């Protein structure tokens, strides 16, 4: 039976080289419990912190679109998706690549951020129109009859009723702002906001990779746990059969049978819990990638543990300053705030506009004549001190906030990178230590079973060895999970999750 358990571990424990689990982080769908998934509360909290540092609207990797559209794509948005298609009758094989591609197409966070980008572009075009000529055309036809007496006009011998007569009027009007620095700065502000929204949309795609990969890895860890519990259940059944046989032969007390039966039933309960957790986490995965919840999924990506070469924190930080899209988005937001600040001061300056129209007017088309008006206008604000000062203070405060957020975010990125590197190094050591514990626990279980079978001792050491083996097994699964989540978090911290997640999870 130990051979069966070893086989299950070798097949089920190899967490995928391209997976990450959504561990109920703010913005990550799914949930875990230490009783069901084999992950301790501290480990889950650690995963939550790593994911939280990548949330689009969080205090970590914040990519706010509020300056663009007045709203934010919240981290909760990445839990959901737009379902495409209907469930099929069979089981759908799902690789990590397929899951991520589905997420990039259907994840709610990406869809909302894309909409925010379109909204920002619309606002940019609105501001651009203020700098472009506006031409309108009109045509009218009217029939009138006028009573001059109603206006106090009475002439002897003249009929006060004039008409009816008709007037046909065709006009084209032009308006053009010739000089307005506030309008120019408003356009530049909208332009930078649009650029910020585009970078935010790219960053949101990194978040989808993190979220979907994270959900996928959690399902794989759950599956490994299920297979391990099945193997442990088989081992418990062997111990129970041995205890019953020994009791029937009169060489073992009833207590050994009861103890073995309790162990066996405990493993049955664990199997129910772990299988239920796997099913729930598959639902969470389906929610992130737009798969119908009644679709049966079979995850196909399994890979052994792969170490990641040492990463220099300083070099990684320099790389992140160039590749993190949320940083570039915040830089554009800072430029937008600067343009707004300039516009607030420049509203004191004169503006120049030109307006005019040309038309053809008469009783009929054949009896008409051209008419036109051309106007040049210069507007000079004379007294609006309170408004100007107020606008300047508001714009200045927003600029200071944007500058502070960018400065803080740079340090947050540095912290995320260094934390991920520390987590990778620590998790790698945990994998080695827990793997050794599994080997030792396996040997101890085999030895205790053999001693009980030979009648040297009762089965209390067997029960204890099984408990120790299960604990070592849980810790090994958790260590593999932590190592993979740390590697994917590093890819996210560097801003390359979408393009290089395979490299980091594969340890190449």
Folded structure, characterized:
By secondary structure, this protein is of the alpha+beta class. It has a single domain, classed as Outer membrane efflux proteins (OEP) (Up-down Bundle), CATH 1.20.1600. Helix content is 62%, strand content 13%. It contains 13 helices and six strands. The longest helix is centred in the C-terminal third of the chain and has 69 residues. The chain is elongated, with a radius of gyration of 36 Å. The protein starts with a helix and ends with a helix.
> Any low-confidence stretches, pLDDT <50, length ≥5?
1-48, 53-71
For the largest sheet, list the strands in their spatial order.
2-3-5-6
Estimated helix fraction: 55-70%
CATH topology: Outer membrane efflux proteins (OEP)
What's the main sheet like? Answer: 4 strands, antiparallel
CATH-derived architecture:
Up-down Bundle
Helix tally equals 13
Strand content: 5-15%
Q: What would CATH call the homologous superfamily?
A: Outer membrane efflux proteins (OEP)
Order of helices and strands: HHHHEHHEEHHEHHEEHHH
CATH top-level class: Mainly Alpha
Mean pLDDT: 82
C-alpha geometry: elongated
Q: State the end-to-end distance.
A: 36 Å
**C-alpha Rg, in Å?**
36 Å
How many β strands by DSSP?
A: 6
Main structural class: alpha+beta
Question: In total, how many domains does the architecture comprise?
Answer: 1
